[in-house]
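hey can u check if this looks right to u? its 264 residues, i copy pasted from the old doc so theres a chance i mangled smth
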Amino acid sequence: MRNMVLALCSLSFAFVVGQPTEGSRSDKKTPEDGRVPISQAITEIAQKFSVRIVVDPALTARVKPATAETLERALDEITAQVSGVVWRKVFTGKVLGQEVPDDQVLSATRALLNIQLTGLMVVDPRNGTLNSFVGNYPAPPGFEQTLEQMQPPFSAKPIYVVLNPRSAPAGQNLRGSRAEQYQQLQQQLMDLLAKMSPEERRQAIQQGFYAWMNADPEIRNQMLFEGMRLSFEYWQSLSPDQQREMMEMGRRWFEQYFGGGGNP
């Protein structure tokens, strides 16, 4: 058992040491696979094709830069690398001299994508105004050329939005410092996992693992080192009997999932 524990510790140490540090990285790229933050990859696309692209700031995944020669194929390349992320072409009402802020474009796009009804009208009889929504309406051929002639008119210049429609805005319903908000999110995560079926939990943990591997190496590095330090401190705080009990639990866990009895 002691040899097994030492082997696992050695593997953990090798994994941590093998992660790129701040001094070993060039710009924000990771030397081992060339991935960059998704926001950086999208910015490069926006500059290449001279278009406005709004990226959900909550997206932190790292992706391989697009190589496609057309805008839509480039966006397809990026979004295909991150589960749940999509891109949409958005047109806003035409108001001379005004540009809709990114956060409003993002929140409105997410709201529309999450409406479950296929059609909806909300009328204010007092003012004679209405807000309308039609979902999944077939776009007629050449409709983009008629946007500015509509009543009310729409801007013919599209905005491209990259987002996860199902994700809630970061920090929603959280209070206190960032460290306290992180603790609240961790508790929410555990509560959510407890409500899942074993299969749902397996899928969620699998997706979480991929998100972890796509995270910024600097953040991942710090979390690994801090986790190892806290684990060592916790181990040192245990009594000899508690340490033996945890070692026995580890032995049983190892045998259950990997087979064999290990070395005593």
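The longest helix spans residues 217-237.
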